[in-house]
Design goal:
mainly alpha, Growth Hormone, Chain: A
């Protein structure tokens, strides 16, 4: 588009111009993340020191959450296709709330194990359904942005919850653990009215009716997709050598005898959270227009640097130098997270046909679950061998960095691009002359008239114009800004059939 003299193209905003329904879902996700942050690091301590269960039983309680995800991820995807993503998210949130409340009240080993499995099932159903919902309300142009923003807001919610938990819980006061698990349950329930409210936004009822009448896909359809299989394998490998080590091998190595203490480890994890919150949006803006697989390569390179720094920090003893090294390593890990967040999940949703979007996300999220299960097993098994684990992880991450561009050659350009979120189509954002010309041409075409006949065609044309503008605004708020491009010359909206 040509800009009149004296005007400049607007700079890409730091905060993406996501559709309003996407922000509503992200806000509810932040709320539930605060609740998760209250309890995320507490389960083992709660089972062992508060409920006085053995190490084995306490470890099984933690494992029950992950094992339940193996069934919950595909189930959540199938429910999203069959019931709509919004209803599947609500179901998952209700189960999660029941699991968190059951943990607060559990006393015996069977009760605690059952409650942990129930919580894990609910969370694992919610994840792929929510990814499907976010992808739907954001639309193709905003998918990378919405997953990137979701990573930032989710981490911020976890950080807020963890800070509150650190200031409240105490093994000397078991009631504090009961309180935080009940608060976690309340945070899941609080998300449900948010989703119910967003259901009433413009365009949502129509999309739900369409999804209810559309044919559903199958898991066989997902597994036959060669491009998806390549993405899945790379995703599972990357999660195993990055996130899977972040929560297990790294803290075990950093706090081993002769290493840093809990305070230093807390600083390192705080560095990760703060760095993600500080740089996620600037990184997203910088990535706009670049290939997603290039961003995957940058993420893996950052993680290679992280593990190399961890290996060095392990030889610095337990003093300030070691703490500084581990803090720097976690900052590098966070930078890798910001490069990774707008990539493979968005690719999965671009590959997914509408009738199988939930199942694509269900199997896609299963790659995260597999990595979270395999990573700790492989990493902790290698820890006793000394400092060789983290150099090996650094080499593996460099290998994943080279695999990213190779995957990119197998993907269509439209699937492999981090697109700019479209600017809101508000008259205030464009020169008045351009608005009149663009509206005149578009409305004229929709009215079946030549240019110049509809905009200046009297009261009837003005009425049509007002109806059309109201419809376009509603469609934008519902995350369908690109509806005209997708439907081509089809007659849609309030003037269809006139």
């Amino acid at each position: 588009m040509n800009h009149p003299a004296g005007s400049r193209p607007r700079r890409t905003p730091l905060i993406p111009a996501l559709p309003r329904p996407a922000w509503v879902v992200l806000g509810g996700d932040f709320l539930s993340a605060v609740g998760s942050g209250l309890t995320l690091p507490c389960l083992f301590v709660y089972a062992h020191q508060v409920r006085h269960l053995g190490y084995t039983t306490s470890g099984l309680a933690v494992a029950a959450i992950a094992l339940a995800s193996l069934a919950g991820n595909p189930l959540g995807g199938a429910l999203a296709d069959r019931l709509t993503a919004r209803r599947a998210v609500i179901a998952g949130l209700a189960v999660s709330a029941a699991g968190a409340a059951a943990l607060a009240l559990a006393r015996s080993a069977p009760e605690l194990l059952g409650a942990a499995a129930l919580l894990g099932l609910g969370v694992s159903v919610t994840w792929p359904a929510q990814d499907t919902l976010l992808s739907s309300v954001a639309g193709p142009r905003c998918r990378s942005a919405v997953f990137s923003v979701r990573h930032a807001t989710y981490n911020a919610g976890l950080g807020v919850g963890a800070l509150v938990a650190a200031s409240v819980i105490s093994t000397a006061h078991p009631g504090t653990f009961t309180a935080v698990y009940l608060a976690d349950a309340a945070s899941y329930l609080a998300f449900i009215p948010v989703l119910a409210w967003s259901r009433r936004q413009p365009g949502q009822a129509r999309r739900q009716r369409e999804s209810e009448t559309a044919p559903t896909g199958s898991f066989q359809q997902v597994l036959r997709d060669k491009a998806f299989r390549r993405v899945w394998i790379l995703l599972a490998v990357i999660v195993t050598i990055s996130f899977g080590q972040f929560e297990s091998s790294f803290p075990g190595y950093a706090t081993r005898p002769g290493g840093i203490g809990p305070h230093g480890l807390g600083l390192a994890f705080a560095a990760d959270t703060v760095t993600v919150a500080a740089v996620q949006l600037p990184v997203l803006r910088w990535l706009a227009g670049r290939r997603r697989t290039t961003s995957v390569a940058l993420a893996a390179t950052a993680w290679a640097a992280c593990w190399a720094i961890v290996g060095i920090g392990g030889h610095l003893g337990s003093g300030p130098a070691a703490e500084a090294a581990f803090v720097a390593a976690m900052a590098a890990f966070a930078i890798g997270e910001t490069f990774f967040s707008p990539t493979l999940p968005a690719i999965i949703n671009d590959l997914a046909p509408p009738e199988a979007a939930g199942r694509y996300n269900g199997i896609g999220v299963l790659a995260f679950t597999a990595g979270f299960l395999l990573g700790p097993v492989a990493g902790t098994a290698a820890l006793p061998s000394g400092g060789i684990l983290f150099p090996l992880l650094a080499v593996a991450c460099l290998g994943a960095a080279t695999a990213g561009p190779r995957l990119g050659r197998r993907l269509a350009p439209g699937v492999n691009t981090i697109e700019l979120p479209p600017a809101p189509p508000e008259a205030a954002l464009l020169p008045a002359v351009e608005v009149e010309v663009e509206v005149e041409v578009e409305v004229a075409g929709r009215c079946g008239l030549g240019p110049g006949r509809c905009f200046h065609g009297g009261d009837e044309a003005v009425r049509d114009l007002k109806q059309f503008l109201a419809w376009r605004r509603a469609e934008y708020l519902a995350g369908e800004l690109d509806v005209l491009d997708q439907r081509g010359a089809g007659r849609t909206g309030p003037d269809a059939g006139q």
